Amino acid sequence: MVDYIVDGNIAVLEINNPPVNALSIHVREGLLTGIQKANQDGSVQAIVIIGKGSTFPSGADIREFGKPPKEPWLTAVGEAIEASEKPVISALHGTALGGGLEVALFSHYRIADERSRVGFPEVKLGLLPGAQGTIRLPRLTGLAVAMRIITSGDHINAPEALKYGILDKLISGNLLQEAKTFAKSVIGKPLDNRRLSKIAVRDAATVDKHFDEALAEVKRKYKGMIAPVNCLKSIRGSAKLPFVEAARLEAALFRELLTSAQSAALRYSFFADRSAPRWKLPSGASIENTKPDIIKSVAVIGAGTMGSAIAICFIRVGIPVLLVEQNDKLLQNALKNIGQILQGSVKLNRITADQRKQSLQILRGETSLDIVSDVDLVVEAVFENLKLKQEIFARLDKICKPSALLCSNTSTLDIDKIAVATNRPGKVAGMHFFAPAHIMKLLENVYGTHTSPSTVATIMDIGKRIGKVSVLVRTCDGFVANRMNRMVGNEAVFMLEEGALPQDVDRVLEDFGMAMGPFRVTDLSGSDVGWRIRQERAKEQGIQLTYETRFVNGERYSSLPDRLYELGRYGQKTGKGWYRYEKPFARTAYPDPEITDVINSHCRSLGIERRVIPPQEIIERCLFAAINEGFKVLEEGVAEKPENIDIIWQYGLGFPRYRGGPMFYASQVGLKTIYERVCYYYDAFPHSSYWAPSDLLRKLASHSTEVPIDQWTSKERSRL
Ligand SMILES: CCCCCCCC/C=C\C=C\CC(=O)SCCNC(=O)CCNC(=O)[C@H](O)C(C)(C)COP(=O)(O)OP(=O)(O)OC[C@H]1O[C@@H](n2cnc3c(N)ncnc32)[C@H](O)[C@@H]1OP(=O)(O)O
């Protein structure tokens, strides 16, 4: 894993552990023996550490965390590097991150390919750079820069790193050759002033000021996360304590993080990010064996808020879009809005004015469907009504070329029921964007019974091209996101009927880490949207909904949201919803006594006695109900693996990444507890049938020891 090559008087330690040269145990052993060997070898006068392949080490091996640690630890390897009697030069290329950058900071010199990047992304894994990174970096950069680099986890490009003093020289030619030349030039020079452990933090006197400012910033930016705070405490130690004591403090803070639930969740999330887009169908077709079609043009049908934002997703990566709306006034409005949104992106420096211009040049608005005959992909984004969508798909099927894919942005409707309207069900799929579609990262791609593997490959590929995190799910009512989230919404409203207020429920879930509580979310999208869907469904089933309706098809029903609609309280757009706003479209939500009155009078009219609902009950009723549904989603094969569900929640529903996602959270709570509480609530609320415990959950909970999350589907689903 580490090749030892001597060229003249230079020993080269070449790390060879693809794909990212992670500092696994064998690499650490190789580096340590290499340093020792070079120091014993009389012919060697300087040592170069370099990575083979695409990069210098990009960090410790994340898969080793959570397992019993194996010696030598990186710190011991690093200390041997620093103590070397012969100069050690780290030659960086690619991404020198985390433990990799620490190896470089133990070295006496650091040179780097001018295109390389460095950084300490540990905080994103709920950790800190635990091999003295937090006490060495401030010695080079000063405290403010070190605090920013370490608490943000951001990559720094080589010229910037040179400016901060992290690097000694940038290289534009052959890195190894240049490293050897550089090594020769420093032979015999004193090393003590190159050993960071011997150098003081130059602005140590100002540490308290920097600490206070940075702490306030991380508490605001990374609310609820412990790693950024520990990073700052350790950096403060670098300035206040003698080096050895600072190193001891860093190790203690690192250990605290390594064993934390947050780090476990963030490390899980790191791998879930990479695993979720790797799709596989029950037929065996997968990302490995299926080629996508190349999409060169797109039509978006429906130029409402959603359709317009979807169009932006494509044009901003250079894919031409035909935006179709039946009414010219609406179309012109949409085109104007798109121009304004892109103007906003220019102002925020997300795109240049030129890029805005180029994007708008490849957008064309039309009022006739006939114009889409030649596009490769259609994304339909009209009102959520099955009959309407079937009509549009039937027309599209006739108009579009045979190879075109016809996709729906439906958020709930069964793709199979839409596909039957066409003669090309293999080319019909769902592409469920989340509002606002040009901002939200998630794309829930949906396959139906007849969707072909190449259609799946194509929608997953185009999702990646437009910069989305794409997750594949099988069709069902609500797919994964809305199907599971419906339980959160239902329980939240039922708790209003029982004693809570919107702000109580939202506060508990926001303190848990959710980006927004369910009532603030509803106010954002508008209560009219849900009302229309409920009315549509009731009409389909021949049901009349009234304020007195308490059950629909035997299921508990709350008419509170309907009351809000009747009062014209649609949310932010009307300046009133579950909260009060200063004016329409204002963002700050204020609890509203009028809503308290509405809820109280609703309860009185239904004869419900209100009670205090404790925070733990709010968490359990909202999240455990969703988790139970998540297990059903797994057992039915709607989602292939728990990671897919968790990534959907993180990127689409604002679930805190440091809790992993609902399924990972369930694994941390313990499946026995989840199962027992689900059974308890099923007893308490038999008219909410979603509380019926999932078979998969029951089976997994019956094991005497917890079944690890990576075995949930493979072990039990096949036996169900
Ligand atoms: C209790 C006792 C304590 C004792 C003291 C201990 C002292 C601790 C000392 C040091 C601690 C150091 C902490 C760290 O270094 S944590 C790691 C920091 N580094 C990172 O977080 C980098 C993570 N990786 C990335 O950001 C990217 O992978 C990148 C390097 C930018 C490359 O990106 P890209 O080209 O897009 O490639 P992928 O992301 O798809 O990755 C390719 C595959 O490599 C796997 N991978 C990547 N990084 C790691 C890693 N650090 N460890 C293990 N595996 C890694 C990734 O999962 C991909 O694999 P696969 O294809 O199977 O999914």
UniProtKB/TrEMBL annotation:
Keywords noted in UniProt: Fatty acid metabolism, Isomerase, Lipid metabolism, Lyase, Multifunctional enzyme, NAD, Oxidoreductase, Peroxisome
Domain 3-hydroxyacyl-CoA dehydrogenase C-terminal: 478-581, 618-703
Enzymatic reactions: (3E,5Z)-tetradecadienoyl-CoA = (2E,5Z)-tetradecadienoyl-CoA; a (3Z)-enoyl-CoA = a 4-saturated (2E)-enoyl-CoA; (3S)-hydroxyhexadecanoyl-CoA = (2E)-hexadecenoyl-CoA + H2O; (3S)-hydroxydecanoyl-CoA = (2E)-decenoyl-CoA + H2O
Name of one Pfam family that matches: ECH_1
Subunit structure and binding partners: Monomer.
Cell location: Peroxisome
UniProt-recorded Gene Ontology molecular function terms: (3S)-3-hydroxyacyl-CoA dehydrogenase (NAD+) activity; delta(3)-delta(2)-enoyl-CoA isomerase activity; enoyl-CoA hydratase activity; NAD+ binding
PANTHER family: 3-HYDROXYACYL-COA DEHYROGENASE, PEROXISOMAL BIFUNCTIONAL ENZYME
Protein name: Peroxisomal bifunctional enzyme
A Gene Ontology BP annotation from the UniProt entry: fatty acid beta-oxidation
Annotated 3-hydroxyacyl-CoA dehydrogenase NAD binding domain residues: 297-475
Primary localisation category: other
